[in-house]
Amino acid sequence: MLVVGSLTTIALLLFWPLAVGAPPQAAPRSLAYSSFVSDVAHNQVASVAIASDGTLSGHLRNGQAFISAAPTAVPDTGLLPLLASHHVRVRAVPAGPGWVSVLVSFLPLAFFVGLFAWIGWAVRRNRGGVLGQIMGVGRSRAKVVTPDMPRTTFAEVAGYQGVKAEIAEVVDYLKDPSRWRRVGAKGPRGVLLSGPPGTGKTLLARAVAGEAGVAFFATSGSAFVELYVGVGASRVRDLFAQARSRAPAIVFIDEIDAIGGRRLAGLTAGANDEREQTLNQLLAEMDGFEPGQGVVVLAATNRPEVLDPALLRPGRFDRQITVPLPNLSERAAILGVHCADKRLGADVDLMEIARGTPGFSGADLANLANEAAIVAVRSGREVLASEDFWEARDRVLLGQRLSPNALRPEERHVVAVHEAGHALVAALCPKADPVAKVSILPAGQALGVTEQLPLDERHLYGEGYLHDTLAVRLGGRAAEMLVVGEASSGAANDLASATELATKMVVEFGLSPALGPVGYSSHGPRFLGPDPLERHPYSDRTQRLVDSEVARLLREAEARATDLIRSHREALDALVQLLVDQETVAGEEVYRLVGRPGPPGRAASRPVAVAAGGGALSPAGPGHGHPAAASRGQLHS
């Protein structure tokens, strides 16, 4: 509507003089010279204007305007005495238009010049307005951060020492490129940062610009793509032109997979034309500047597997740096950064909290610190206590806690049996992750939760650990079958997660004797999880064999869990009664009931209130599925 209104206003300004104009007047009467002399003689002429070229114009006594012409070849010397004798007002005028007429004739041109000058001024003054969008559609929308603005440095990026050491060479090159040239080395043209969401890729890019003290052009891949073909390519050209003019500079493209996706031959019609032209222009621009110009391209993505190979080759993105989820010490350092503006109690141990948050990204830890502050505000305190962090952690993992009265008494008993089965099998399996807490407090879609936390962060998962994990996930169903006599719908999440893990064991890990040492894992890192539309790379006959092996692994795991629970039935009944009475039981109590010592140094083993429930939160499998969820510990609903 704004565009239509603006165009309507401009049209009115243009055509108003033509539409309004001067008031309508009668056309002057044309007289022959003889008729003019006759009218003068009969006292019908009131006034006359005589031009030097013989043109006669004036008004009759009845008000009628007239126009005539006197002969110039044979001048009439008796005209002036005739006019004087009949009292006609005579006025002499120069030939041609006067200066006023000339000025009026230039008014339309001056109007158009002024109008276009105003449009240009309005576009320059406000590129984000309607006129700016019309006239500047092909200009880059990158946000420019100059060195005199507040800067981000590596000191504000906690942890990631290895990543910062590798990317620090970009800073060194931008600060002193001559040192590189003296050795004959060329600085990197492009650096690709990839990793799970929330790990701080954008923050690292800003820190590089802050450390180097150069101009920083920040944009996203989606800012280049428009409906009109050619706009994205124009914006890429404009972005790199601005970067070259302000070199040394850094061009940062976030979510580059929006324009850098793999090109498919024969499928470039329609909307793909704009994306492919934008990608082609980006490839040309990255080849079009020399390393000595001091322009470095940084890009970030969560999906490096979809990027075009031409974009990843040396000479464009020379380096590909993976920004992983933070480890234990890095999580503690990140928590320290996000708690710097908060008042912490004496009982708060950030290292202990970091041990209880495996698999949390930097964004997750920032959210955890903020949720802990909210818990303290809700309790009317200004100092954060340790329990605030644990309650916030449970809220992040599970969600809002529901009322304990949401379950009927018989449902509470079934939930207690189910969760006690999980906890008992986990405590009895030697290679399973230790039990941290068991609760039957309903939360969201979950009626209860058994929480396991690893002693150390795992990078490799042995076959024994995987079989123990399967048994733990089926322990709740096995306990229901033994105690209640039938299974319930509460095991749906456990069955789904166990099936997914068993499928990975058969298809990807080569742990099936029937299938043999064959792996069908997906190529490239999948930080966002597997593609649900991707077809399996094996035949239907192999699929039947996979289904048979997955069912065998699950049956064996359920049988093992059933045997463990049957042989420790007294401990199971005691744990069920504790859960019904106390609602939340610490991991140490579980180990005491089964007669085994708890693992030393286990984190987050005390009973803490389960903040709001999280439904089906069992991880997809060790090191697979969503990376953050996969390493946050086992959660069995």
What is the CATH topology of the largest domain? Methane Monooxygenase Hydroxylase, Chain G, domain 1
Distance between the termini: 53 Å
Estimate the helix proportion, in percent. 40-55%
Contiguous uncertain segments of 5+ residues = 1-5, 16-22, 127-138, 602-633
C-alpha Rg (nearest Å): 42 Å
Report the β-strand fraction as a percent range: 5-15%
User: Class by helix and strand content?
Assistant: alpha/beta
Main pleated sheet: 6 strands, mixed
**Into how many domains do the coordinates divide?**
5
CATH class of the largest domain: Mainly Alpha
Strand order of the biggest β-sheet: 6-8-9-10-7-11
CATH fourth-tier homologous superfamily of the largest domain: Peptidase M41
What form results from the Cα inertia axes?
A: elongated
Q: Indicate the CATH architecture of the largest domain.
A: Up-down Bundle
Number of strands: 15
| Mean of pLDDT | 76
Overview of this protein structure:
The protein is an alpha/beta fold. It has 5 domains: 25-96, Signal recognition particle alu RNA binding heterodimer, srp9/1; 100-135; 143-262 and 273-322, Rossmann fold; 328-397, Helicase, Ruva Protein, domain 3 (Orthogonal Bundle), CATH 1.10.8; 404-519 and 537-636, Peptidase M41 (Methane Monooxygenase Hydroxylase, Chain G, domain 1, Up-down Bundle). Helices cover 46% and strands 11% of the residues. It has a 6-stranded mixed beta sheet with strand order 6-8-9-10-7-11, sandwiched between helices. It has a 5-stranded mixed beta sheet with strand order 1-4-3-2-5, covered by helices on one side. Strands 14-12-13-15 form a 4-stranded antiparallel beta sheet.
